[in-house]
Amino acid sequence: MDRCSASSLLAAIARPAVRNETGTIRVSLDDGQTLRAKAREKLESGTLPVDDHVRVWGGRGANQPCALCDIPISPDDIEYELELRRRSELHTYRFHRRCLAIWELERGRRQ
Ligand SMILES: [Zn+2]
Predict the structure, then answer these.
(1) Which of 3, 55, 66, 82 has its CA 20 to 30 A from that of 91?
(2) How far away, in angstroms, is 28 Cα from ligand 1 center?
(3) Ligand 1 mean position to 71 CA, how many Å?
(4) What is the pLDDT of residues 91-102, one digit of tens each?
């Protein structure tokens, strides 16, 4: 990972707060630590892949659970959908923007 993309990932993680219609979800540094621990756990167990993705695109959430935090991605949020190949099968993972950044960061540390 080059320095430029690492710093933009960190900027995404450091985003102070996310608002939606049901209220304010506070995103503190602690949440970042918790999510990073969760990402490491899921990478370790194979629930989340370390593989490079073949396609990624964003769109409105469809209340499907995020692959990292398991919280449904509401239509107010942007959902990032990743497609990647594992053992020649295509798999799809959905992430919040911030969760995607955390997964990218933790996955990068393992490679
Ligand atoms: Zn998430």
Answers:
(1) 3
(2) 14
(3) 6
(4) 899 999 999 999
Please state the domain extents for the chain: 3-110
* Rounded (10°) angle between helices 97-110 and 3-13: 140
How far is Cα of residue 55 from the mean position of the Cα atoms in its chain? 15
Q: Which amino acid is at 1?
A: M
CA of 87 to the centre of ligand 1 (A): 25
Angle at 64 between CA 103 and CA 33, to 5 degrees: 30
Helix 97-110 vs helix 29-45: crossing angle, to nearest 10: 60
CA of 94 to the centre of ligand 1 (A): 8
Cα of 2 vs centre of ligand 1, distance in Å, is 24
Work out the widest C-alpha separation in the chain, in whole angstroms. Answer: 42
How far is the centre of ligand 1, averaged over its atoms, from the C-alpha of 108 (Å)? 18
The pLDDT tens digits of the residues spanning 24-64 come to: 555 555 678 899 999 999 999 999 988 877 788 999 999 99
